[in-house]
Amino acid sequence: MPLSNAAPMLLTRTLLYTAMTRAKKLLIIVGNKNIIDFMIKNVNSKKRNTGLEFKLRNA
After folding, report:
1. Is residue 29 part of a domain?
2. pTM value?
3. Exposure string for 37-57, b = 16+ CB within 10 A, e = fewer
4. Could you tell me if residue 3 is inside a domain?
């Protein structure tokens, strides 16, 4: 998993957790330790407004 400087809203604990739990055999994280530390501490999550429910109901 490559990690680089990105918008803080993208560097979340949830993303890191998802990468770790979806890895089948091995996960190699390449990047700065400070970014990983930031992701662990970043528990902010935003409600996603995709409109998917509306589209499915009206399909």
Report:
1. yes
2. 0.67
3. ebbeebeeeeeeeeeeeeeee
4. no
User: In sequence order, which residues have a C-beta less than 8 Å from that of residue 43 and are 6 or more positions away?
Assistant: 12, 13
The residue type of 7 is: A
What is the distance between the alpha carbons of residues 14 and 9, in angstroms, rounded to a whole number? Answer: 11
CA 57 – CA 40 distance, rounded (Å): 36
25 in any annotated domain: yes
CB-based burial, 8-35: b 16+ in 10 Å, e otherwise: eeebbeeebeeeeeeeeeeeeeeeeeeb
| pLDDT tens digit at each of 59 positions of the chain | 998 888 888 889 998 999 999 999 999 999 999 999 999 999 877 777 788 888 899 87
- The alpha carbon of 59 is separated from its chain's Cα centroid by a whole number of angstroms, namely 29
